[in-house]
Design brief:
The complex is a heterodimer. Chain A is mostly beta strands. Chain A contains no helices and 11 strands. Chain A has strands at about 5, 10, 20-25, 35-40, 45-50, 55-60, 70-75, 80-85, 90-100, 110, 115-120. In chain A, the strands form 2 sheets. In chain A, strands 2, 4, 5, 6, 9, 10 and 11 form a 7-stranded mixed beta sheet that branches. In chain A, strands 1-3-8-7 form a 4-stranded antiparallel beta sheet, with no helix packed on it. Chain A is globular and about 40 Å long. Chain A starts with a strand and ends with a strand. By secondary structure, chain B is an all-beta fold. In chain B, strand 7 (about 85-95) and strand 8 (about 100) form a beta hairpin. Chain B has strands at about 10, 20-25, 35-40, 45-50, 65-70, 70-75, 85-95, 100, 105-110. Chain B has no helices and 9 strands. The radius of gyration of chain B is 13 Å and the shape is globular. In chain B, strands 1, 3, 4, 7, 8 and 9 form a 6-stranded mixed beta sheet that branches. Chain B has a 3-stranded antiparallel beta sheet with strand order 2-6-5, with no helix packed on it. Classes of the chains: A mainly beta, B mainly beta.
Chain lengths: ~120, ~110
């Protein structure tokens, strides 16, 4: 059984950065992309970007280019999301989600439990 | 990439059927057979219920079905049950090789 376990809630000041982790177990980490999807309070889902663990290539949604970095550590089966220059509009629950393979068109078959990031002065 | 268009809300009585639409463009829904649907209960992570337009993952009730015509995909839930009350999101692969989500539809079981 596949499990994605995310790090805990974060409270950040505007202008700072946050790094959220997502540890996978029960599957073959290197055979699937990991995406990050966020959900602002009362809002819908927004795809931020993905990483292919091997060879560690990431691509990002245009809206987040330059502010987001997604990485993967194959040795610990953990993916990371780092978001910089935080503003209040970045307050959201951040989910990691595993796709069915490394092919870009695969749906998200497993999700982490979500990490609440609150940006406030 | 603009979000796919879904109705904000739909409702139905137990036992009835409802359909949720998801409208995109020829660059996403209309151009690829890679539409998926997710169910999200309050405070929970989304759950995949339909993929590749019509396929159900193992363990998902056959009361859920998907279809597509042109640039619009649809999710139908038959035999509505109280537990179906949730938010539903469509998603499509796009010509940019990235996914895009719909704005979400809140289903109320009356």
């Amino acid at each position: 059984q596949v499990h994605l376990v995310q790090s805990g809630a974060e409270m950040k000041k505007p202008g700072s950065s946050v790094k959220v982790s997502c540890k996978a177990s029960g599957g073959t980490f290197n055979s699937h992309t990991i995406s990050w999807v966020r959900q602002a309070p009362g809002q819908g889902l927004e795809w931020m970007g993905r990483v292919i663990p091997i060879p560690g290539i990431a691509n990002y949604a245009q809206e987040f280019q330059g502010r987001v970095t997604i990485t993967a550590d194959k040795s610990t089966s953990t993916a990371y999301l780092e978001l910089s220059s935080l503003r209040s509009e970045d307050t959201a629950v951040y989910y990691c989600a595993r796709a069915g393979s490394v092919t870009a068109n695969r749906p998200f078959d497993y999700w982490g439990q979500g990490t609440l990031v609150t940006v406030s002065s | 990439q603009s979000a796919l268009t879904q109705p904000a809300s739909v409702s139905g009585s137990p036992g009835q059927s409802i359909t949720i639409s998801c409208t995109g463009t020829s660059s996403d829904v209309g151009g690829h057979n890679y539409v998926s649907w997710y169910q999200q209960h309050p405070g929970k992570a989304p759950k995949l219920i339909i993929y590749d337009v019509t396929n159900r993952p193992s363990g998902v009730s056959n009361r859920f079905s998907g279809s597509k015509s042109g640039n619009t995909a649809s999710l139908t839930i038959s035999g509505l049950q109280a537990e179906d009350e949730a938010d539903y999101y469509c998603s499509s692969y796009t010509s940019s090789s990235t996914p895009v989500f719909g704005g979400g539809t809140k289903l109320t079981v009356l």
